[in-house]
Amino acid sequence: MLLTPVECMTHIHIWMFAFTDPAQSLMLLMVSLDRLFSVIAPLRYVRFGHRYAYALVGFVFVYSFVSAVAAWIYPLAYSGPAFIGALCVNRLAYGPFQTYLNVIRIAYAYTSVVLYAVVLIIFRKKTAKVVAPMNDARRKQ
User: Residue 92's pLDDT is what?
Assistant: First the structure.
């Protein structure tokens, strides 16, 4: 049984994949940004409160929803014959949107890794400033 891209997009697992695929990589990036904020400005970070966390998670969900809606552009524009298998696991169900998902996933993952490296460097410098006077005091005793 062959399906058109529009018929594939009506399957719940395809719709959820279009929603959750950008969400997972963007959430990883948001966690990296959160850790960066907590290391750079720890006293201000404590005052951010729940609204800050809700804003980060809300942004991820809104972006993922818009991205999932954008996944419908190619299937709605396609008017050719049915060519996708019944499970809709073919990358052609998304068309160019699949390339977009791959690029976004890779960009967010690499950015997250770079941010974590920055966090580790900053954290190491800040802890060295705190630990150095304590080590000097021990040496004097």
Answer: 62
